[in-house]
Each structure stands twice: as structure tokens, then as C-alpha cells.
Amino acid sequence: MKVKIDYDYENDNLLVYKEGAKSKKTLDLDDILIDFDENGDVVGIEILNASKLFNVDKYDLLKNLIKFEAVGKITKDLITLNIKLYLLRRKKEIIKESVVKGLNTIGLKEGEVVIG
């Protein structure tokens, strides 16, 4: 499935999702919501207050975001999500990264998840 990226400038929310996929469970890691399908695969990520989390201007997220990658490691108790945003400024690629950790409160299977 194709991954889509949408940014809501007014609310500063970044949404990355697999087009046409249906969410069955959502894991809330404070300002990051991760949606999973019935098989436990990631089908979407919503990042609230995205410009603050990545320390970038909202305009950059609206106009210069060219790629998104997220890799998560899930254990019985914990999920660690490494997120990278790729921005293009003056023909130069800039990578902004953030690592978010939280409790595996919805009983996800151990392993690795990837979106982007």
C-alpha cells in the first residue's frame, strides 16, 4: 500500500498513513498516536505538535517535507519509535530525528514495525 503524508498547518499535526488501510488499535505515546491493523502492522502515525517535536518551522513541514521514515521496536512492555523527517531546503536534504518511548499498553506482539 502507498504511504501518504499530510500536514495540518493550523493544528501542527503530521499524519502518515497507508492509503486504504483500516485501523483496529491505537497506541498513544503522548503526542504520537500509532494505528495498527488487525495483524499488528502499522497503518498510520499521527504526530501532534510536530514542529515542536522536530524543532522545525511549520512552513518546512507544509512545503519542504519530502520523506518520512519510522522504525519501531516492540517488546512485551515497551515500544521505542525512531522517526526521521527528510526536508529539502535550497536543494539540500536535511534530516530531523526524534526517538519516542512508551509502554506497550495494548499488548502488541514483540518485533519491529516500519512505516515510510
Task: Explain this structure.
With 116 residues, this protein is mainly β. It has one domain. Helices cover 10% and strands 58% of the residues. It contains two helices and nine strands; from the N terminus they run βββββααββββ. It has helices at 50-54, 58-64; strands at residues 3-8, 13-18, 25-29, 32-36, 42-47, 65-74, 78-89, 92-103, 111-115. The protein has a five-stranded antiparallel β-sheet, with no helix packed on it. Strands 8-7-6-9 form a four-stranded antiparallel β-sheet. Strand 6 and strand 7 (78-89) form a beta hairpin. The longest helix is centred in the middle third of the chain and has 7 residues, at 58-64. It is globular and about 45 Å long. InterPro entries: DUF2283. Pfam families: DUF2283.
How are the elements arranged and paired?
Layout: E1 3-8, E2 13-18, E3 25-29, E4 32-36, E5 42-47, H1 50-54, H2 58-64, E6 65-74, E7 78-89, E8 92-103, E9 111-115
Antiparallel strand pairs: 1-2, 2-5, 3-4, 4-5, 6-7, 6-9, 7-8
Total domain modules: 1
* Global mean pLDDT: 92
Note the gap between the termini. Answer: 11 Å
Number of helices: 2
Proportion of β residues? over 45%
Strand order of the largest sheet: 1-2-5-4-3
Q: What is the helix/strand order?
A: EEEEEHHEEEE
Dominant shape = globular
What value does the Rg take, in angstroms? 14 Å
Low-confidence stretches: none
As a percent range, the share of helical residues equals 10-25%
Structural class: mainly beta
Number of strands: 9
How many strands, which pairing sense, and closed or not: the largest β-sheet? 5 strands, antiparallel
